[in-house]
Amino acid sequence: MPERPNLARHGRGPIPPRRAPAEVQLDDEQALHLAMAWHREGRWDAAERIYRGLLERPAGNANATHFLGVLLNQRGDTTQAMQFIRRSVALDPTVPDWHNNLGNVLLESGRVDEAASAYEEAARLAPGRADIQNNLGVLRREQKRFAESEAAYRRAIAIDPASVDAHTNLGNLLHATGRSEAAMLSYCEALALKPANVRARQALGMAYYTLGRFEEAAKVYADWLRDEPDSPEARHHLAACSGRDVPGRAPDDYVEKVFDGFANSFDAKLANLHYRAPELVAQLVAQLLGPPCADRAVLDAGCGTGLCGPLLKPYARKLVGVDLSAGMLAKAEPRQVYDHLAKAELTAFLEAEPAGRYGLIVSADTLCYFGDLAAVMRASARAMAPGGWLVFTVEGLPEGAAGDFHLNPHGRYSHGEPYLRRVLAEAGLAVRNMEAAHLRTEGGKPVDGFLVAACRSGNEGDCEGGGLHSS
Fold it and tell me: Whole-model pTM?
């Protein structure tokens, strides 16, 4: 993945003390140093006030302009962030880190070709920087220019043989292009350099389970859990690969950690995976409900970055989104389609809602983090208005597989059709649609599942779309 935004500035100077006494007047240079120190510490409100104050000076301030953009991107406001970062680059085009940061933001936003120009300029200005070559490698992989990606990673390693990120990213590339044994060597190099490196352990475990070497994958996760007993990722994937102590659903701390770390690049990465779940659920909602008339309370259950929000808004008198990941919700909020966003575990949220509140509940690729669906289905049925609809996707068990559901080595659950029908019926929900669906591609292979619609009704006529109203 790209390096994190760099707070390097043009010009040098010592960082002043963290706090300035109220009676001391700071000049622009001192104020900038203070803002950068607070920015690094996570005191974003205070840093932003100083950055914006410096921009009010008649001469402006290229550093403050840039770092305000970086901060806004960290807050989830990508559009404004790019405006400020581009402006800073125009004010001073000689700082390689600024081109690098611009590339990071553009790549996170899926604007790959523009990101390429930014990274290329950063590499031209600083050809001896391993971190910039690593980012260029990430960019080339996104462009499917795999040979150039590998060359960039290897240049980064030649410049800095201790670059854990470059070794890990090279391993990821080798794994993705079918060279899993070579990939494991890169992952082992990364782990040797930094034994607690989470990304390398994740990738090494993934390489082993992709090769079907589940015992070795389990050992990677067991060693990781021994070193980090509180790691939700190690614990969850150890259960997935070993089949021992399998939880009924992915633990909250696991879901939060994974998706908070994924938030900035989520939309762009899903686009590369040909992610279809939002489109599929929106098409089914349209078939069930007919022309939108904004007369329902609608819940986007597991809203993530809000990809479903614009598709659901035409049906909603009130549109609510719920997700466990604060990072995802920070990306959903700027879409400005939700009337309310809540950070909560889905079942607990539904159980706390007024009975019969929602006329439509949609869940796109969220229930694959649940194995046992009984509790969440009961809670959904309770929160639905009479005649209300539940529309969702899940990944499907392979044909002929035994059991109701299975936790896969990648950390998600798959479900069998008989189990889905049974658990919905037990919750008092009538199945109206259960069709096989191709949800996305992963590792070059299709991920297949089910697109499901169920109604809270004992009467067929109660589930018609026209005239449906909810409290």
Answer: 0.68
Kindly state whether residue 10 falls inside one of the protein's structural domains.
no
DSSP state of 143: T
CB-CB contact of 288 with 353 (8 Å): no
Distance of CA 25 to the CA centre of its chain: 42
**236 and 342 part of one domain:** no
Element at 202 (helix H, strand E): helix 198-210
Of 210, 319, 302, give the one whose Cα is nearest residue 249.
302
Same domain, 104 and 173: yes
Instruction: Give the largest CA-CA distance in the chain.
Output: 75
CA distances in angstroms from 409 to 172, 175, 205, 225, 242, listed in the order given:
17, 16, 9, 16, 9
**Tally of CB atoms within 10 A around 287:** 12
Residues 260-299 have pLDDT tens digits of: 886 666 555 555 555 788 889 999 999 999 999 889 999 9
- What would the pLDDT profile of 66-92 be if each residue is shown by its tens digit? 998 888 888 888 888 889 999 999 989
25: left (phi over 0), alpha (psi -120 to 50) or beta: beta
420 vs 90: CA distance, rounded Å: 56
Whether residues 153 and 237 share a domain: the answer is yes
